[in-house]
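User: Show me a protein chain along with its predicted structure.
Assistant: Here is one chain, sequence first, then structure tokens.
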Amino acid sequence: MTSQTETRPFEAEVSQVLHLVTHSLYSHKDIFLRELVSNASDACDKLRFAALSDAALTAGDAELRIEIEYDKDARTLTIRDNGIGMTREEVIDNVGTIARSGTRKFLESLSGDARKDTQLIGQFGVGFYSAFIVADKVTLLTRKAGGNSADGVRWESTGSGQYTLEAADLAARGTSVTLHLKAGEEEFLDGWKLRELVKRYSDHVAFPIRLRAEDGDKPSGEFETVNHAVALWARPKADISDDDYRAFYKSLSHDFNEPLAWTHNRVEGAQSYTSLLYVPEKPPFDAVFSGRDERHGLKLYIRRVFIMDASEQLLPTYLRFVRGVVDSDDLPLNVSREILQENRLVAQIRSACVKRTLDLLDKLAKDEPEKFTQFTAAFGNVLKEGIAEDGANRERIAKLLRFASTQGEDANKTVSLDDYIARMAAGQEVIWYITADSWLAARNSPQIESLKARGIEVLLLGDRIDEWMIGYLHEYAGKKLRNAAKGELDAADGGDAQAREAAAQAAQPVLDRLKQSLGDAVDKVQVGHRLTESPACIVLGEYDMAPHMQRLLREAGHDVPASKPILEINPQHALVQRFAAETDAARSADLAQLLLEEAQLTAGDQLPDPSAFIARVNRIVLGA
């Protein structure tokens, strides 16, 4: 190893993060201590797990701990741990590069049984850079557990776009981060202030956090433990305040916002485990970067030893917004993801976590409707995925969903399915809904004009996921759900069959002319009882996909089966009557095509030739 100092540039993303944390997060500047203590705790967790198979890693210093020291004269604050430590390469990867996890890189170098036995997900990323909120220079010293004293590394940066690396002779394993504080940050050189911050943010950390006792206004030579050093979830619920729960959530999730709700449960018996589950107030920051297939919200511990970020195994995808921990007494410590996927005990824990989460949301909906409204605004569309993915809990999930309806004055005024059923008209046996591109498009859809005129409430499904979701929700509380744009409306609504037949016969000449004019562009033309104000609308078959959904799938590169629309007309509308009276063949063709194109547009379809549509409208308006 060379002893020469090497200067290296940060990757571009790091410079952006440094700018972000030193400017946008300034009002939360004391958060840096939480982040650095959290990283130190992760390092101790990793070493504790590694020592299960290699006790020599902790030889001579088995008590894992975190120490905080400050020097008022030198204006420095140091956070030190005797955890796993890092090699020179790991320092470059983890501190010089953003959005990489040291543990993930470690895992990528393993194979076979070693890979199965070492499933840790730790983060040494954005949180580290929070040090630059209060420091104008940061010095990191680290030595990997199991290495020699000469294997130490010194990293230093002023946060100006580059850092230096050099070898260092370090007697002990672990990592120390020294902050050279900026002018005006003297409050972080005060023992009382540091104790208060540890209590607020890191009291739950399962390793002792030690601070030197003060002699007068300076630290003395003795360390004292300033946190409980017991995992918060393992403490009796009666001993945990709401502030404790909130502080733990922020440390766990790295979220500046408060949790919306939480549930803490201990199960004893044939299987013993503890779960602490949180519902965030808003989508956490990492949700911007993580999709359905990358989730890191629920951590698995076994007898207080952190094993892995096991969201996929412990909660279904549609509950990926949940944050928290599960700590089991029964799973084997050498558990792997393969074992988790097949383990009967894990299946039981997963089922219980789903139940606890849905119970929590039920309680929130009943007792704190304003908070539940916040939840549905943030995560309602994610929860809708459960209708398709979790058949066993479909009714429970449907109960929690909220939809806009024709009785609401805007998209934010939503209704539950239970509320809808409670105010159904006498004799109504169907829950009516319409899907569209947006709330406004659904509300103004011609397919629901007749239902609105008769005072029948219609659910307005204007989110992209709704068309897919509703395909799995056919019934709720014994009531069928019915798309107002599909099939025969009156057949399900008790309409007058004789009146319908008479209207169809009277309009038959118009229907025949329209079908002849439109040809293969439509499957058929019919008279229905959906329309009261519009001249025409598109009607779907029971198994047809809505035009706006077809368009979205085509835009995403998917093949969509070709289908011909059914055109339903309103014979009483002036535009239809003008078509019926038109004797000029060209104008008649324009009017027929206009009726179809208007119906397609209101259904969310995309016209193949918009220019031809505009030219046709101009000809009709100008009487050409």
